[in-house]
Amino acid sequence: MTYSTTTPLNIEAIRADFPALDQEVHPGKRLVFLDSAASSQKPRQVIDAMSDYYRTSHANVHRGIHVLSERATAAYEGARDKVRAFINAASRREIIFTRNTTESINLVAGSWGRANLGPGDVVVLSEMEHHSNIVPWQILAQERGFTIRYIPITGTGELDLDVYARLLRDEPVRLVSVMHISNVLGTVNPVAEIIRQAHAAGALVLIDGAQSVPHLPVDVQALDADFYAFSAHKMAGPTGIGVLYGKRALLEAMPPYMGGGEMIKRVTFEGSEWNSIPHKFEAGTPAIAEAAGLGAAIDYLTAIGMENILAHEQLVVDYALDRLSEVPGLTLYGPAPERRNGVASFTLADIHAHDIAQLLDAEGVAIRAGHHCAMPLHQRLGVAATARASFYLYNTQAEVDALITALERVRKVFGI
Ligand code: PMP
Prior knowledge:
Blueprint (H helix, E strand, L loop, with lengths): L10 H7 L6 E3 L2 E2 L1 E2 L10 H13 L10 H21 L7 E4 L2 H16 L5 E5 L8 H10 L2 E5 L9 H10 L2 E7 L11 H10 L3 E5 L11 H4 L3 E5 L10 E5 L1 H6 L10 E4 L4 E3 L13 H17 L1 H20 L4 E4 L9 E6 L4 H10 L2 E2 L1 E3 L4 H7 L4 E5 L6 H18 L2
Parallel strand pairs: 3-15, 5-6, 5-7, 7-8, 8-9
Antiparallel strand pairs: 1-2, 4-10, 9-10, 11-12, 13-14, 14-17, 16-17
Helix pairs in contact: 2-10, 3-10, 4-5, 11-14
The chain binds 4'-deoxy-4'-aminopyridoxal-5'-phosphate.
The site of 4'-deoxy-4'-aminopyridoxal-5'-phosphate has 13 residues, from helix 4.
């Protein structure tokens, strides 16, 4: 088979922006980084933005009437404007900065969920969810007494939408909380349709966008999502900052999640009056340098173009799926290439995924092995662990070839 190598990206120039990619990790072994679904590498534009911020502009935000405080506030609030534009939210007030996707989901559970869910209510999740979109709901269900139902996955690793429709028809569903793209299967879920059906049944929808916002254009208004959560560190930005998008009316009606400075208008000994959104949900000193880094990451991805990034990654992932499917003894998980994005999870005969990852590391190839924070999904797949190669804008088909060559070595070592 011949493969297209026509990428819309200037891949050499892009790779030159990411200092961490240019290194040997063992003598004579250059790094082949195939673990971006866990966390992506950072371009120098992001590293520089954070370092420049600390060198020239750091002070606390919002409070001080001096130049550095104004600069810090501009960096922080400027990042909020960039996030708003990037996901096409209607208002900057709908962008809440959190620590990561996990905290964004916990915020919705702890605020909206605690105020609105009780016995008799149903929250619908799916069998492919990350622990961060299961555990907060389990904790809250114990406290509030509602029921959790799971949309099953089909044999091809897609959501069973017939069961979903039945759940919406037969049960008092208040909230549907599902991932946009699976971090294990790569499945791109039909979230627009999932949201349409939930709204028709009177339920709200939270989308876990940890694996989608880094990889494809996301328009929260076109999707009509009620809540949308993601992390900066998977989209070329820094760790320590994430985003919760929420529709303005919902956020305004929700109680605070944490109490402290910034989130109040007035405090007396008797009680407090909450600040307006987004500040109501941002108690304490926020991650200011990280916001500057996230803003730079958004500028970087936007300049390249999310459509171009998506097209390039599709090329690399399609090639990886084809090449991996030719490896004797290898089982791939997830749907057909046209319905997936970003990751290729596999097992190789009965070799433990950790052994695969360790031998690949010796060849310079970085992948992830384990349950990828999706133990229930692995239980459903009938495997304890998978090996996962994941791809981003800086990966190439040549790196896929390096993965395949390293897997040949694994097969030799294990005699299969
Ligand atoms: N959801 C999905 C689909 C993910 O892939 C991840 C990260 N592996 C998370 C949620 C959690 O993200 P974070 O650790 O940044 O909170």
